[in-house]
Design brief:
Length: 183
């Protein structure tokens, strides 16, 4: 159970009101067919081991690597890795998610995996899990998650699913050729 969000709402009610306004906007702008239950049911093809790569904006753009740890009809657990290009600011924290309406997933920050960089706070995400083709009803293969960062002063995020992991044989061959100094 994550009590952090409740405490944040007590200390900073405007942050919670801002998040509620973002949710209302996301749901209102989506066509009814997008959020309807007719597009399958959670977890909409999300599965452990999937990685989504893209960006988000908080003051400036940052790279985002979102790795799904578990995904069920009730909840999603993920790891949020970020890198600010051109700086040494990077880090990772856990995220806990719930399905809000249809394909809309809300992820709230959990614990840092390592001590965070200075002046960096964990952020939440609210986004639409989209199949490969938005016009294919019932498609369960998630290829993109797009939405809003749930923090004051931040903007949108968008991540796309990466290709499956390299086969074991392929990575061994690359490692042998890239090292440059054989025995």
């Amino acid at each position: 159970r994550n009590t952090r969000s409740r405490h944040t709402c007590r200390r900073r009610p405007t942050t919670c009101m801002h998040a509620a306004a973002i949710w209302a906007t996301i749901v209102a702008l989506l066509p009814a067919s997008t959020v309807s239950a007719g597009l399958g049911s959670p977890p909409f093809g999300l599965a452990a081991g999937q990685t989504f790569v893209g960006h988000y904006t908080c003051a400036s753009k940052a790279w985002l690597f979102l790795t799904v740890e578990t995904a069920t009809a009730e909840a999603v657990e993920a790891v949020f890795h970020f890198v600010y290009p051109g700086s040494t600011q990077h880090g990772a924290f856990t995220m806990h998610g719930t399905w809000v309406s249809g394909r809309i997933l809300k992820l709230v920050p959990g614990d840092w995996l390592r001590p965070p960089p200075e002046k960096v706070v964990p952020i939440g995400l609210a986004g639409l899990v989209m199949p490969a083709a938005d016009d294919v009803p019932g498609s369960a293969d998630p290829q993109r998650i797009k939405g809003e960062v749930l923090h004051m002063g931040c903007g949108e995020f968008e991540v796309n699913r990466t290709a499956p992991a390299l086969a074991e044989g392929g990575s061994e061959a690359q490692a042998g050729g890239a090292g440059g100094g054989g025995a």
